[in-house]
C-alpha cells in the first residue's frame, strides 16, 4: 500500500484490540505508537508528538474523557485531532467527548475499514486546511497557516474541528450552509446526520467567540451561516 506520512498515538487498554488496530493502520502506511494507558502515553509526548490521537474512553486510571481534556489543555497538543473509540454509544457520552474537544468518535464494535476511512479523512482535511490566506470578519482573524484564531487581538483556543467549521463559515460568509455541507466540508466525508455533532461544535464556537459568536446564525430547518453584520 501507499505510505502515508502520519504518526498516530493509539491509547487502548485491551491488548488484542490495540494490536489489531495498530497492525491494520500500520499496513495502511501509518506510523502507530501503542499505549495501554493515558499515564503511559503522556510522558512520551516530551519525546514525540503525533498527527492524530486514537483514544479509548474506558481506560484504567485516567479515562479517555480526562485524557482528551488534558490534551486540549496542553499548548503542544491542543490542535492535534482526536478520535475517541468507545463502547458507550449513548448520545450523552458522544456529546461529552465532543464538548471536551474530540474531533470524531467511533463506537465499538467497529469495522477496521470504517476506522481507516475516518483516519484518512482526518489527514485529508489536515492538508486541505493548510493554505496561508488569513481570513478576517469583524473582530475575528483566522490564520490557517499558524492555525490560530484571534478575537479583538486575543487568541482563542479552538479545537481542530471548531477551527475548520469556523473557517468554512468565514469562507462562505453570508451564505447558508446546510448540515450536510458543513459535515462534508469539515470531516471530509458525508457522515450520517444522526446526532448533534455539528450543533455541539457550533455551540462551543459561539461560546468561545463571545460577542462575535452571535454572528453564527441558525437557519431553522436548514443549517447555519456567518453573518457579516
Automatic annotation (TrEMBL):
| Coiled-coil zones | none
List, for all copies, the residue spans of the domain called Response regulatory. 7-123
Domain OmpR/PhoB-type, first and last residues per copy: 132-228
Pfam family example for this protein? Trans_reg_C
Location of 4-aspartylphosphate modifications: 56
The reply to whether DNA-binding figures as a keyword in the UniProt entry is yes
Would you name any one GO CC term?
cytosol
Recorded GO molecular functions are: phosphorelay response regulator activity; transcription cis-regulatory region binding
Could you identify this protein by its name? Answer: Response regulator transcription factor
Please name the source species: candidate division WOR-3 bacterium
Amino acid at each position: 500500500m501507499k505510505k502515508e506520512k502520519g504518526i498516530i498515538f493509539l491509547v487502548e487498554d485491551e491488548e488484542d484490540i490495540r494490536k489489531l488496530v495498530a497492525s491494520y493502520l500500520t499496513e495502511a502506511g501509518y506510523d502507530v505508537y501503542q499505549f495501554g494507558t493515558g499515564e503511559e502515553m503522556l510522558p512520551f509526548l516530551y519525546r514525540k508528538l503525533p498527527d492524530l490521537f486514537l483514544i479509548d474512553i474506558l481506560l484504567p486510571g485516567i479515562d479517555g474523557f480526562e485524557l482528551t481534556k488534558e490534551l486540549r489543555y496542553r499548548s503542544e497538543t491542543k490542535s492535534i485531532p482526536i478520535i475517541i473509540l468507545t463502547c458507550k454509544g449513548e448520545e450523552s457520552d458522544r456529546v461529552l467527548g465532543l464538548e471536551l474537544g474530540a474531533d470524531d468518535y467511533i463506537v465499538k464494535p467497529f469495522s477496521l475499514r470504517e476506522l481507516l476511512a475516518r483516519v484518512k479523512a482526518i489527514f485529508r482535511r489536515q492538508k486541505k486546511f493548510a493554505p496561508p490566506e488569513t481570513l478576517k470578519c469583524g473582530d475575528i482573524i483566522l490564520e490557517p497557516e499558524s492555525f490560530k484564531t484571534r478575537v479583538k487581538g486575543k487568541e482563542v483556543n479552538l479545537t481542530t474541528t471548531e477551527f475548520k467549521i469556523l473557517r468554512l463559515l468565514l469562507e462562505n460568509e453570508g451564505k447558508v450552509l446546510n448540515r450536510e455541507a458543513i459535515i462534508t466540508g469539515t470531516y471530509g466525508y458525508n457522515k450520517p446526520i444522526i446526532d448533534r455533532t455539528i450543533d455541539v461544535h457550533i455551540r462551543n464556537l459561539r461560546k468561545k467567540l463571545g460577542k462575535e459568536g452571535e454572528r453564527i446564525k441558525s437557519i431553522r430547518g436548514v443549517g447555519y451561516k456567518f453573518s457579516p453584520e
